Amino acid sequence: MTVQSVDTKNCDYCSGNGYFQLVLGGTETCASCGGTGKKVEK
């Protein structure tokens, strides 16, 4: 049995949430990962 490892690192800016919790309420999509929560390799 072979186990394949998928490299899924969380985004450094939003900690893998895909959004930021705003102080005044509501959320904002993380611009770094586009809301996916995954680190984008450039």
Mean pLDDT: 84
Structural class: mainly beta
- Strands, total number: 2
Computed CA radius of gyration, to the nearest angstrom: 13 Å
Number of helices: 0
Strand order of the largest sheet: 1-2
- What's the end-to-end separation, in Å? 33 Å
Q: What share of residues is helical?
A: under 10%
Helix-strand string: EE
A few lines on this structure:
This protein has no helices and two strands.
Can you describe this structure?
- The chain is mainly β and 42 residues long.
- It has no helices and 2 strands.
- It has strands at 19-21, 27-29.
- A two-stranded antiparallel ribbon has the order 1-2.
- The radius of gyration is 13 Å and the shape is elongated.
Features:
YuiA family protein, mainly beta, 0% helix, 42 residues, DUF5351, HSP_DnaJ_Cys-rich_dom_sf, two-stranded antiparallel ribbon
Write the layout of secondary structure elements.
Elements: E1 19-21, E2 27-29
Antiparallel strand pairs: 1-2
InterPro entries: DUF5351, HSP_DnaJ_Cys-rich_dom_sf
Protein name: YuiA family protein
Organism: Neobacillus rhizophilus
